User: What shape does this take?
Amino acid sequence: MSAAPILFEDFQPGALMGERVEVYDAQQARRWQAIFGHQPGDGANDAAESASMAVVNMMRAYLHAVTPRPPGNVHARQQLRMRGLPQCGEAIRVTVHCAHKEMRRERRYVDLRVHGTGQGGRPLFDGVISLIWAA
Assistant: This one.
């Protein structure tokens, strides 16, 4: 039996929606390099790859923490402030909080605040994922 999807009414500003630990590992690095290139000039094993892995793992954490989602949601935008770069092999702990919700023009808008830390609580990123919630 599957759980009922999270509804707009379920979001409470300030509430923790969940947290997840994701590991930026060699397999993720290989996938990134298969798309963008394996050489340092392509960004491999450098800041471009690390910043991309922060975004990937932020989104993975959101997808696992805020579930089940109703079909039809729209990912409207995201903002991300990098505070440090994750290193290959590092576990990234991501927390997801409801930051804000409001009705505008008969649409349900939800802002989720995400915070990522690395080894020893080292700050990696802070961000906001803005969604138009379907139900």
